[in-house]
Amino acid sequence: MIAPHDDKAMLPSSRLLKMGLVLPDAAQPQFNYVPVVLHGDLAYVSGQLPKQDGEVRIKGRVGDTVSIELAQEAARICALQALACLAQALGSIDHVTQIVRLSGFVASGFDFYQQPSVIDAASELMVQVFGEAGRHARSALGVSALPRNSAVELEVIAAFRSDRRASPNQSNEK
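and the corresponding C-alpha cells:
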C-alpha cells in the first residue's frame, strides 16, 4: 500500500499536482443520467470508465486479455475521472471532506479472483490525494461485462462541505 502524504495541511488539489497528476475534463454522460448527484452533504458519482480523451482506453476482461497491472492503471484512470466529476460538481476537490465509499467493478475472466488487487489502485490514489480522509468503505466485484467493453468501472460516494456547490445545472439536489 502506498503511504499517504505526510503534509496534513496540504490541500487535495495541491497533493494531486505534487504527484504530477492533472484532472481530466469530467466525462459527459451519453445516456439519461447525471455524473454527480448532491444530496445533503454527500456527492454520489456515477460509474466512471477508464476514459482518456473521450475514449475507453483499457478494454477487455482481466485475467483473459487484460493484465492485473493494466487493470490497476484502469482503476486509477477511473478514480481520476471520478475526482474530475467531483471537482465539476463542487467547484474543487478541496471541498471533499471524506471519501465515503468506492464500488469497483472488474470485468473478469472465468478464473480471475483478484478484483480487490485491481481496485486497490483506486483506493491508494484516494489516500494519496486526501490523506486519512481518503480511507473509505469499499466493494470490489467481478462481473462478466462492463459498458463499452471496459475492464473497470468505479462509483464513488464522497462527503463535502455543504456550503460549497457548483452551479445547479451540474448536479441534482433532492
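(Above: one complete record from the training split.) The radius of gyration is 15 Å.
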